[in-house]
Amino acid sequence: MEDDWKPLLSSTGTGDGCKDKGVIDSLDSKSKRPFHVEPRNIVEDDVQERVSAEAAVMSSRVSYYSRLTGSSDRLLVPPDHVIPAPEEIYVYSPLGSAFKVHGGDGSAKNPSIVTIFAIWNTMMGTSILSIPWGIKQAGFTFGILILVSVGLLTLYCCYRVLKSPKSIPYVDTSDWEFPDVCKYYFGALGQWSSLIFSLVSLIGAMVIYWVLMSNFLFNTGKFVYSEFMNDTMYVFHLGDNGTGTEVFDRWWSKTSTIPFYLIILLLPLLNFRSASFFARFTFLGTISVIYLIFLVTLKAFQLGFHLEFHWFHSTEFFVPEFRLFFPQLTGVLTLAFFIHNCIITLMKNNRDQKKNVRDLSLAYLLVGLTYLYVGVLIYAAFPSPPLSKDCIEPNFLDNFPSSDIWVFVARTCLFFQMTTVYPLLGYLVRVQVMGQMFGKPYPGFFHVLLLNVIIVAAGVLVARFYPNIGSIIRYSGATCGLALVFFLPSAVHMVSLRRAGELRWPSILFHSLLILLGVANLLGQFLM
C-alpha cells in the first residue's frame, strides 16, 4: 500500500539549487495537484452536478502526471494544455465535496463610492417620511440636535458591530455575521436574541410597508377617480340610492377596504420560491428617494419658509423649540439609522478594507444630511399661518392633497417600489424562520403559506385599526434598537476587552451608558 503513494519516477542527481528551485516552483498554481473526487460529490452552489466526460478525462490525465514524479520536481509536470482553464477549476475538499471557483476576489469588490451609496440606499427607508413629524414632536432646534446626536451614537455602535469579528483571536471569522459573534460570546442565548430582534425589525418593516401601501394606493385611487370620473355623467344607484361618489368612498376606504385589497396583490408574491426577480428592482428605491428630495425642494421653493422661534412655550401656529415629546423622534431615528444587522455583509465587498471605517462614517454623514434636508425643509416650509406646525402628519405626504400631481407621482413611485421590496423582506423572514425550524428556507408550500398568512394578517390588522405610521416606526425602532444597536454591540465589545485583559472603567461607564440610553429610548415610547 505504501508503494502506491510513491511516484513512478524520481529525480536523481539534482543539487541544492535545483531542489530550491523546485520548492519555489511548487508554489506556482500550475504545480498544484488536485486529487480525485467522486462525480456525485461535485457541487456548485446548492445544485448537484455530474462531472462531464471531458472533466473525467482531464482528471485522469492530471492524476497520471502527478504519479510520475514528486510534487517538488518539475521534470514531468503537467503541460499547459492539460491544466484546466481558470473558469473550470474546482476547489476540492477532503470532506468529499468541491465548489467551483467564480473568479478572483478583486473582480467582485466595489470602490469606496459604490460602498458608500450602497449603505445610503439601504438605510433610506420609510423613516424618511416621518422625520419632519419627529422634528415637530421634539421641537425644531432640539430636533436637529437630537438627529445629529443619535446619528453619532448609532454610527459608533455600527462601528463596534463592524469590528466585532476581528476582535476574536485564533478563529477564522472572515465569513461570520453579527449573530455568529453573539453566539461566540454569549452562546445560543446571544444568537437567538439577535435572531429574534432581527425578525422583529423585518416584520415591523413589513407592517409599516402594508400601512404605507394602503395609504399610497388609497390616495392614488382618489387622484385617478377625481381626474377621470365625471360624477355628473356616471351616477350609480345601489340599495340606498347613493351617488357614484358615495359608492366610491364606501368601497375605496383607507382603513376599511384597501388593506384587504392588497392581499390579492401581495400574498401570491410572498409565496415565490426565490426572491431574485424582485431584487432586480431595488434601483426603484434610489429613484424614489431622489424624487422625494426633488419634491421637498420644489415645495419649499413654492411655499417659502415659515419660522418663529419660541423656546419653551407654544403659540397658535408654532410649537416650542424644546418639547418633552422628543423620545418619539429618538425612536424614529433609531430605525432611520439602523443598518447594524447587515453592515458586515455590505463592507465585505469594499475593495479597500482599510477604508471601511472612513466609508462607513461618510455613509452615515450622507444619510444624516439627507434626513436633515428633508426634515428641516418640510418643517420650515409648512404654511404657518394659516396652519399650525402641530398639524404636520407622521407621513408628511399626507399634508398634501390627493389632487397634487407632484405628490401623486411620489406616491405612485413609492407604491411600486414597496411592492417589490415587500416580497424581499418576506423572503428574509422566511429564510430565518424556516432555516431555524426546518433547516431549509422552503420546506414546503403549506409551511411557507402559513407563515405568509400570519405576516399578512399582522399588516392588515395594523392598517385597519392602528394606521399611525409614526408610532409604528418609533416602537419598532426603539425595540430593535435596544438589542441590535445599543445592548449587543456594547456588551460584545466589553466582553472582548475583558477576555483580552484590556477592559477599563471609562469603557465600562461609556458602554453601560449606551445600554441605559437604549433602555430609556424604549421606555420613553410608552410614556409619551
Automatic annotation (TrEMBL):
Keyword Transport belongs to the record: yes
Domain spans labelled Amino acid transporter transmembrane: 115-500
Location of the protein in the cell: Late endosome membrane; Lysosome membrane
Protein name as annotated: Neutral amino acid transporter 9
Residue ranges of the TM segments: 113-133, 139-159, 192-212, 251-270, 282-305, 325-347, 359-382, 405-425, 445-466, 472-496, 508-527
Keyword annotations: Amino-acid transport, Disulfide bond, Endosome, Glycoprotein, Lysosome, Membrane, Metal-binding, Sodium, Transmembrane, Transmembrane helix, Transport
Region (Disordered) location: 1-25
The keyword Disulfide bond is annotated on this UniProt entry: yes
InterPro entries linked: AA_transpt_TM
Protein family (similarity comment): Belongs to the amino acid/polyamine transporter 2 family. SLC38A9 subfamily.
PANTHER family named among the record's database cross-references: AMINO ACID TRANSPORTER, NEUTRAL AMINO ACID TRANSPORTER 9
Catalysed reactions, semicolon-separated: L-leucine(in) = L-leucine(out); L-asparagine(out) = L-asparagine(in); L-glutamine(out) = L-glutamine(in); L-tyrosine(in) = L-tyrosine(out)
Membrane topology: Multi-pass membrane protein
GO CC, alphabetical: late endosome membrane; lysosomal membrane
Taxonomic superkingdom: Eukaryota
